[in-house]
């Protein structure tokens, strides 16, 4: 009997998401999470593994990945070298010695139930997506080189994330439980920040969040700062012995490079800050008042 998921030490969970996670676990269906980067999709799988005391296996999906890579790999090169040089303790006639499990394969052969995170499924093509769910439905796959079927010892808890960069097929969507994680509103963000910084002052908390959402709302920003950037930014502010929260009130916003990771976004943020302070600023090297 798996106990209910109610959150973890560093993961703030709303009631709706808690219900969705527990329904997915009860129905033994993959949970598909969508939302912009930084909304906690990936961290949810870590939180579930922590809270339920289960191992976490992570499959990071790549655009050129084939399903077989996620199931198993046949190391033909090592077998060839062993046969050529003859200094290995392995029996080159036993192909099974050269089979290595991929991430899904590892989840299937594990002696204990695991959480399987399939991260950024939207990077893969539709054939990969649909074939992968066939395997997860059947809880088995074949290793053709040794004519062997691998059956899951325990059905893993499957969490699938998508940044919505590519549409997922209707058959794929139909076989998952779906939940969209919105970006945290300021009240939820306060709860998240207090979890990471229990001793944060009210002045720093309120002013940091106010500035953060103000910067997120700038027009033309390609990669908006997410929760992890806010956490790292507060960490940087607290680590600076010369920082005073009054600086934020006055519009002096340090360490913008912690919040913005693309040069055009960083330039736009710096120009915005300079305009707020009422001093001369620069656009692509030209100065004006």
Order of helices and strands: HEHEHEHEHEHEEEHEHHHHHHEE
User: What's the CATH class label of the largest domain?
Assistant: Alpha Beta
How many helices does DSSP assign?
Answer: 13
Beta-strand proportion: 15-25%
CATH architecture of the largest domain: 3-Layer(aba) Sandwich
CATH superfamily of the largest domain: P-loop containing nucleotide triphosphate hydrolases
- What is the distance, rounded to the nearest whole angstrom, between the alpha carbons of the first and last residues? 67 Å
Helix content: 40-55%
Give the rounded overall mean pLDDT. 88
| CATH topology-level name of the largest domain | Rossmann fold
- The shape, in one word, is elongated
Unreliable spans are 280-289
Computed CA radius of gyration, to the nearest angstrom: 24 Å
Which structural class fits the helix and strand makeup?
A: alpha/beta
Major β-sheet annotation: 5 strands, parallel
């Amino acid at each position: 009997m798996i106990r209910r998921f109610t959150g973890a030490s560093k993961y703030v969970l709303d009631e709706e998401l808690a219900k969705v996670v527990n329904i997915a676990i009860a129905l033994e269906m993959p949970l598909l999470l969508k939302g912009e980067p930084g909304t906690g999709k990936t961290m949810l799988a870590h939180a579930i593994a922590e809270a339920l005391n289960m191992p976490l296996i992570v499959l990071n999906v790549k655009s050129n990945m084939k399903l077989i890579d996620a199931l198993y790999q046949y190391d033909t090169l090592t077998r060839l070298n062993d046969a050529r040089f003859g200094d290995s303790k392995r029996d080159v006639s036993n192909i099974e010695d050269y089979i290595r499990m991929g991430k899904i394969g590892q989840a299937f052969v594990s002696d204990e139930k695991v959480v399987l995170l399939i991260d950024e499924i939207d990077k893969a093509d539709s054939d990969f997506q649909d074939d992968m769910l066939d395997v997860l439905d059947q809880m088995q796959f074949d290793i053709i080189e040794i004519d062997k079927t691998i059956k899951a010892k325990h059905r893993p808890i499957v969490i699938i994330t998508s940044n919505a960069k590519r549409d997922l097929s209707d058959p794929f969507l139909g076989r998952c439980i779906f939940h969209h994680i919105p970006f945290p509103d300021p009240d939820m963000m306060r709860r998240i920040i207090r979890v990471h910084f229990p001793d944060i002052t009210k002045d720093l908390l309120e002013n940091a969040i106010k500035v953060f959402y103000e910067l997120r709302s700038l027009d033309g920003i390609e990669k908006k700062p997410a929760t992890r950037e806010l956490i790292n930014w507060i960490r940087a502010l607290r680590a600076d012995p010369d920082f005073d929260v009054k600086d934020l009130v006055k519009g002096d916003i340090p360490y913008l490079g912690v919040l913005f990771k693309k040069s055009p976004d960083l330039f736009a943020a710096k120009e915005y800050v300079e305009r707020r302070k009422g001093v001369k600023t620069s656009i692509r090297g030209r100065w004006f008042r």
